[in-house]
Amino acid sequence: MPTAPTFLRSPWSGRADPVETERWMTVAQAVADTVAADAAERDRTSARPHRVLDLLRESGLANLLIPEEFGGHGAHFETAFHVVRALARVDASIAQVLGYHWLNQACVTFYGPDPERQAHWYRASARANWVWSDSFNPVSPDLEIVADGDAYRMNGLKRFATGASVADVIIAGGIASGGAHDGELIVFVLDANRDGIEHIDDWDNLGYRSSASGSVRYTDVVITADDILGVDKEEPFSSVVTPGVQLLFGNIYLGIAEGALAQAKTLTLARPNAWFLSSADRYAQDPITHRVFGELVSRTAAVEALADTLNRSFDEVIALGADTTAVDRAELEVRIAQLKVVSTEVGLEVASRVYELTGASSTRSSVGLDRHWRDIRTHSLHDPVDYKRIEVGNHFLNGVFAPISLYT
User: Which UniProt keywords apply (predicted)?
Assistant: First the structure.
């Protein structure tokens, strides 16, 4: 049985400075403004976001986190999560695809201990402006990966492969049968259009309609040694990618809440007159309107404060590289679970209650205010938030950490 890989230094260190933050938030806002122009139309038609992904490549965001030595921009995850939040305000589907791209791209480091192979993948990605997706859904049927000479052949179906049909490469994994990695969970990178890969257009859900989250079917897909990033040993550093995914979700839910509030503000300021029992001349001057906005804005600001702290903490933990301990990883994960709980609750409440402020006319399909609620209601079911509550409570009472998994 091969020994566990020895992970080297992390390519990420330090923290985002104001120059980095300002530069990329300016880019993010420009991209968000463009994305917003036809977000409602993409939602109505469930269109795959090919043009938007081109925009992400052209803007430099696709290479944001690749180290400068490999041709990227060398930014930090704190910056990336702020960019995701800006995009989620206008289109959560695009924010999800971009956030997954960065975390899947980072698997080059999390699962690939060989520095030469890391350099190969990062340089190839930066040079071609690859967008990365994944086909790693643990509750979808497992893939069959069987040795075939020095290679493997893979068969099976993976559902909810967000972005796979529009991405350049796909991260996938499964237990190998036979060959050099018999019995091990191998993680590998495949061209999204490799022979035997079929993208199935079966995503027909309430929200996230332009996230390209259809299934992927694999039929005798060849996996060579050159495709394999590494082996998942549930080693503390490599498993930090999972809290990163949950942190991405928290930032997206926060961005959805902020986007719902921003749109509700615009609609409310445009409302004529006021309720006939009100002493105010306009809805925007009504104390009841002020009270509801005040409540929702304050709760959203509290989630923002927690997310900002954790975004920076994530950079601090992944900078440890091979020195990351199980406790480092577990403490980060339980704090991110807290964000998952409150961002879900606040996001759902805000996206629903803004209608109390904007009135019946805002329920028109052409207004598109419902996208915020539909998106967060759809994605917040990704994994049950009650289990996050249990995880946080068990740790608070008994000091127990959740086991390492693809959800915790």
Answer: Oxidoreductase
Domain boundaries, the chain: 18-130, 134-231, 238-398
The residues, ordered by sequence, that sit 6+ positions from 50 with a Cβ below 8 Å of its Cβ are: 166
- Per DSSP bridges, beta strands 144-148 and 151-158 are antiparallel
pLDDT-derived band of residue 4, with 50, 70 and 90 as boundaries?
very low
The confidence band for 1, taking pLDDT boundaries of 50, 70 and 90, is very low
Distances (CA, A) of 181 to 46, 147, 152, 264, 327: 40, 9, 10, 54, 29
Examine domains 134-231 and 238-398 and report if their fold is the same.
no
Answer whether 206's CB lies under 8 Å from 139's CB: no
Structure tokens at 404: 């390492």
What distance in Å separates the CA atoms of residue 226 and residue 246, rounded to the nearest whole number? 30
Architecture in CATH for domain 18-130: Orthogonal Bundle (1.10)
Superfamily of domain 134-231 in CATH is Butyryl-CoA Dehydrogenase, subunit A, domain 2 (2.40.110.10)
Over the stretch 377-404, which tens digit does the pLDDT of each residue have?
A: 999 999 999 999 999 999 999 999 999 8
Give CATH superfamily name and number for 238-398. Answer: Butyryl-CoA Dehydrogenase, subunit A, domain 3 (1.20.140.10)
Between CA 317 and CA 15 the distance in angstroms is: 11
241-270 vs 370-379: helix axis angle to the nearest 10? Answer: 160
Which pLDDT belongs to residue 8? 57
